[in-house]
């Protein structure tokens, strides 16, 4: 592990505490919005989200999304390969108890995502090219310009690393089917380029079509595997809770882990999966035509329940089948589960689902990156960034998996620090923003 000794261990402890404490802070500050917001959320589901046709600026022609499409675009980046691969990575790094801490972080950090989305809508603006931009690059300026500049510099790199990991994971899985990595990288690059080039409306339309379908298909196939052995499922759930609060002894080919490693592994994978604390999920929400920012914030908050369900199912698949106890850290655990235990046609359904997951995630990341660039540069530079992103997606198919995940953890923390600090400052400075 990269966090076993000296300063690295202190760094991991400090950053894990920062994430968890900020999540608890906003849970308390919003009055446990995870519970108090349920009534309003159910109202929005029944009656729809109030929208506004007024431009948030002076220009008449702007590129926007409906509140639902904005939510699905954000979910396209959070619900994807991270939910499928992340729990397995967490379990192999921190034992079964890491799955508990992953779910715990998703619950508490949903309050952070709520605040991020509300602040993004409160501070969004129209740039010189007539495009709506919003997110941490805008609301952090209200806290301190230095935080915004720090965030922008790091988040652009993080989006690139994220996309390369998605491309790498897909290429690794298809390599087991005899498909060359360069083919996977090339096809992904081409499709992402064609979709993202169409702007916010096209991105939202693609997400609205694919996200519900791929979510349902994956859950259906997963449940068919889990119900085959209910006793192993119950036993695995017990192991998750007991291992969450004590060191894990070595099992088969799996080395034992400490309590700290379980918390760290679960928390970091939770951050990667939900993007809560990074602020990136608020970027597509910022272009929604919603009337009340808190309504969009509630949509974002309760999308965390879908993340938690997805992660729990993926984690249970890995624990019940025992694939986590052998081999090295790898991103093909779910593929191995479906290949060995899925009913006829299950592996084909998984491959189709994985392709859609990776595609929507990379499209969302590329769109978010272009929105960040739009906040500081002209459209020509935005197009240049798109070309660079496409090249990184292609090259990502050849990156070593363990290096990519370790590098992403480091960059992710550097992006989260200014965002979390800025959110706390703004919540104290502008408490009315969290009210209608």
| Chain-averaged pLDDT | 80
Structural class: mainly alpha
Q: In percent, how much strand structure appears in the residues?
A: under 5%
| Record field, number of beta strands | 2
Kindly report how far apart the N and C termini lie.
46 Å
* CATH class label: Mainly Alpha
Give, in spatial order, the strands making up the sheet with the most strands.
1-2
Summarize this entry quickly.
By secondary structure, the chain is mainly alpha-helical. It contains 18 helices and two strands.
Kindly list the characteristics that best describe this protein:
436 residues; mainly alpha; Hydantoin permease; two-stranded antiparallel ribbon; 18 helices; 2 strands; globular; disordered N terminus
């Amino acid at each position: 592990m990269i966090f076993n000794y000296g300063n690295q261990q202190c760094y991991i402890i400090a950053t894990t505490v920062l994430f968890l404490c900020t999540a608890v802070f906003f849970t308390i500050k919003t009055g446990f919005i995870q519970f108090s917001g349920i009534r309003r959320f159910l109202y929005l589901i029944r009656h729809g989200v109030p929208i506004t046709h007024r431009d948030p600026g002076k220009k008449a022609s702007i590129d926007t999304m409906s509140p639902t499409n904005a939510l699905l675009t954000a979910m396209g980046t959070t619900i994807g390969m991270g939910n499928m691969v992340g729990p397995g990575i967490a379990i192999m790094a921190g034992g079964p108890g890491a799955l508990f801490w992953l779910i715990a972080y998703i619950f508490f950090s949903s309050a952070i995502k709520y605040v991020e989305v509300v602040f993004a809508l409160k501070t969004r603006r129209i740039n010189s090219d007539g495009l709506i931009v919003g997110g941490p690059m805008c609301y952090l300026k209200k806290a301190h310009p230095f935080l915004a500049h720090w965030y922008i510099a790091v988040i652009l790199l993080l989006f690139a690393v994220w996309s390369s990991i998605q491309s790498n994971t897909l290429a690794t899985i298809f390599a087991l089917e005899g498909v060359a990595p360069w083919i996977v990288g090339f096809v992904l690059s081409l499709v992402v380029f064609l979709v993202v080039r169409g702007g916010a409306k096209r991105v939202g339309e693609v997400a609205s079509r694919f996200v519900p379908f791929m979510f349902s298909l994956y859950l259906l196939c997963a449940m068919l595997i889990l119900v085959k052995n209910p006793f192993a499922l119950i036993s695995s759930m017990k192991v998750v809770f007991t291992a969450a609060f004590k060191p894990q002894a070595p099992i088969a080919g799996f080395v034992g882990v400490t309590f700290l490693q379980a918390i760290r592994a679960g928390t970091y994978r939770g951050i990667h999966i939900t993007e809560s604390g990074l602020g990136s999920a608020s970027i597509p929400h910022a272009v929604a035509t919603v009337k009340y920012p808190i309504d969009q914030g509630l949509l974002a908050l309760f999308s965390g329940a879908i993340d938690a369900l997805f992660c729990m199912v993926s984690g249970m698949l890995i624990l019940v089948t025992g694939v986590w106890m052998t081999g090295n850290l790898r991103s093909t655990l779910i593929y191995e589960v479906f290949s060995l235990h899925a009913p006829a046609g299950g592996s084909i359904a998984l491959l189709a689902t994985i392709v859609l997951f990776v595609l929507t995630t990379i499209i969302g990341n590329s769109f978010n990156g272009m929105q960040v660039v739009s906040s500081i540069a002209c459209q020509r530079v935005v197009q240049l960034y798109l070309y660079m992103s496409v090249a990184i997606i292609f090259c990502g198919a050849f990156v070593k998996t363990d290096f990519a995940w370790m590098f992403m953890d480091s960059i992710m923390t550097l992006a989260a620090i200014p965002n979390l600090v800025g959110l706390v400052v703004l919540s104290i400075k502008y408490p009315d923003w969290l009210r209608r």
